[in-house]
Amino acid sequence: MNQFVFFGSDAICLPCLKFLHEGVGVDGRLLAVVSQPDRKQGRGQQLSANPVAAYAKAKGIPLLQPEKPDEATVDWMREQGVDVSLVMAYGQYLGRSIRTVSRLGMYNFHASILPKYRGASPIETALASGETETGISFMQVERAMDAGAVADVERVVIEPTDTALSLREKLGLAVVPLLERVLPAILNQSLEWRPQVESEATYCRKLCKADGWIDFSLPADAILNRWRAFKSWPGSFCMHGEHRLKIGTMTVLDASDIPMDLTVSKSELVVGGLIRDEDYLIVRTGSGWVRLLELQRPGGKMLPVSEFLRGYPVKTGETLLGEKSVELTLCADSK
Fold this sequence. Notes:
The protein is of the alpha/beta class. Helix content is 24%, strand content 26%.
C-alpha cells in the first residue's frame, strides 16, 4: 500500500487533508502529518495548534511538529518507506534531503496560476490586483521558490463579492478535484510536467500591517480590490484628523448617484475629500468615488455609517488621509 505524508499548517489545507485521511478512492493511506509547532496566540498567549495540527490530533493521525524539518524527520520518513509527500501552505523551507526522501517525490499545491504570483501572498495579491481568475497549481518542489514544473491547474473564478476569506475557502476546496486527477498519475509515474516560463514569473511579498492604509489617490476600483484582499488582515484604515478609522465595508459609487444639493461642488473636493449626509459618507478617490458603509473609531465598535455619524463629527469638505500603497509584486527580471 502506498504511504503519503502531508506537510501543511493553514486552514486552506483542510479539504485536501480530509480527502487523504478518509481515503475514498485513494490507492494508499495517510501515514502522517508534518506541521508547524504549536504557538502562543491571543492575549492570554496560550499554546494553540494550527488548523492542520488540530485536525491531525482530533483524528488520531500521527503528527510531527519539528521547529524546522531536519535530518531526524528525513530519517523517520526513510524508515517508514514514504512513497509520496504532498505540501500546501506549510510555512517552512524544505531542503534537498527532505524533498528527495520520498520514493515518488514531493509535490506542492500553490494558490495561483503559475508562473504568476509566486511567493507568500498569492491569494491576497490576486484580489488586490483585480484578477478575475486564479487557481491551484500542482507543482514539483525545487530549491527556488515556487519555480518547479507544473503538471495541472484547477482554475477558480474570482467573483466581484469575493474577499480573501471566501476565495481562500474556494481554493482549498479546489485542491480535491485536482488531487483526484493527479494522484493516480503520480503513483503510476505517468504525470507530464511543463516547465514554467521564467520570463513570465511574478513574485508577491509577505503582507504587512502598513498594507491596510488606504491610498485615496488610487482609482476607486483599485481601492475596493485592496479592501477585499485585506479585509481579514490587516484590514483597511485611514486618518480623520488625529483619529485612525477602520473601514469595515465599502463599495464603489457611480458619480450619477451622488446627491447634487451639496454645500461644496464635487469638483472642488480634493482626493480623500468627503461628502456627508445623515446616512452616507462618500470619498473622492484618484478616479471615481467610494461609499463607506461601516466605520470604527479607536476604542469603539464597528458600526453602520448611519449610526457611526450620530456620534462622530464629520462634515462635507473634510478630508480622509491615508498612505501611498506599496507594490505587492515584482517581475522576474526585477527580483
